[in-house]
Amino acid sequence: xxxPRNRTLSAADLQAFGEELDAIRARTQAxxxxxxxxxxxxxxxxxxxTGVAGRALLFLGAFVHSVLVPAWILGTLLLGxxxxxxxxxxxxxxxxxxxxxxxxxKLNGKTYEWDIVATSEAWRKTHNFQHHTxxxxxxxxxxxxxxxxxxxxxxxxxxxxxxxxxxxxxxxxLFQWGVAIQDLRIGRWFAGKMKPGELRRAFRPVGRKxxxxxxxxxxxxxxxxxxxxxxxxxxxxxxxxxxxxxxYVIIFCGHFTADAEVFPKEVLRNETRGHWYLRQLRxxxxxxxGAFINLMSGNLSHQIEHxxxxxxxxxxxxxxxxxxxxxxDRYGQxxxxxxxxxxxxxxxxxxxxxxxxxxxxxxxxxxxxxxxEAAA
Length: 376
Description:
The chain is mostly helical. About 60% of the residues lie in helices and about 0% in strands.
């Protein structure tokens, strides 16, 4: 697929581009307040009550067999929705520190612990720091294929990647587990570059979190149903699976569509603010779909705006996107957006295409060259 052509910017244009995007941030930051607090507290309530309703219906179906099937289906869907909301709109955004200004200990980005097997502490390192600092820079951003998939032709091909269509499906179903072990660097242990003792020490907090989640969803709640534990256990299993697959789809659509780009480490050398914004823009993809998609994706339907402004409350991204797109249009820069089926179709194409050998394209040193650099 041919990537869209972007206008080559002069150094002055590049500086102005960054300043305009900084100004959008400043204007939004100045208005953050009660409206945003009300929003996130409604999300908290939504997570709580959809979770309570989902679990109640699972128990109702377990004890009243005449409504077992409809109660199980609705209960599982509600519990899955609760887990998606908690993961995407609540946990992800709170851990970014988007609501630290509220001084609410339950919404503090440094202490919040979310309802998945991955620890928030590890996520703050691999996602908040590594991914958002080195977005789509090969060798720096571990989210490029998560060490399992070849998504871009710039990644060196190995025979292992022939299996990646099947691996991608398994990874989607078990996504929270992949996130949980991402920072353990298990590949280094397999390669003999990490001692077993080091791996054990790194695994301890992750193991504790895994045990806590397994105990809650697959032991405590099912046992409360007594002899009818199996429907409750299966409901929890499917709800977690729904959350895993949905999270995988949203994250992959935000980073691995046909127009998304990756960059060499050299891009970081003397990178200006304008270059940084362009790298974020060219490594990100948005989704159309309206309020429902925005909510259920944690507003990562606006992945471009999230990469520009990760600590701004995500409920502001939709309105910021109007100005951001206008800035991109004025400077002749492609703003990558599309429907969920369209964007995920491109992700699937990448997974299938790059499972096979392909020649890497010509490497550019920067995400975009200024006119002077292009001439040189």
